[in-house]
Input
Amino acid sequence: MTEARLALGQWGEKLAVDYLVNNGWKILARNFRAPVGEIDIIARSRTCLLFVEVKTRRTNLFGTPQEAVGSRKQRQIIRTAQWYLQEHKLGSLQPRFDVIAIISADGISGQVEHFEHAFSLD
Output
């Protein structure tokens, strides 16, 4: 992966964190890594534990950012979330899997789309 793509991804994740915080979520972890995969953002509210995949793109030329979170990636995120839940006993919080898609042609400003309940354990 090129340095420019890494920088765009990191910028997109920061934008997503800011978006979540501004909407009342408490960030628990960023770039949580386990042997089975990685989750970009883990956040919580009073009742919900949110596992977020962030996808940032410059254009929709090769598809929308959210389309890049296919079934294989979803399974990896679910396995990683299960690992996180085994390590962190968080009581009765309801897990939820969301995708935040960001389009930014310039890497300075971006359009954020939040897809709640993007996929589930089923």
Notes: The mean pLDDT is 91. Strands lie at 26-34, 37-44, 48-57, 94-103, 111-119. The chain has two helices and five strands. Residues 3-22 form the longest helix (20 residues).
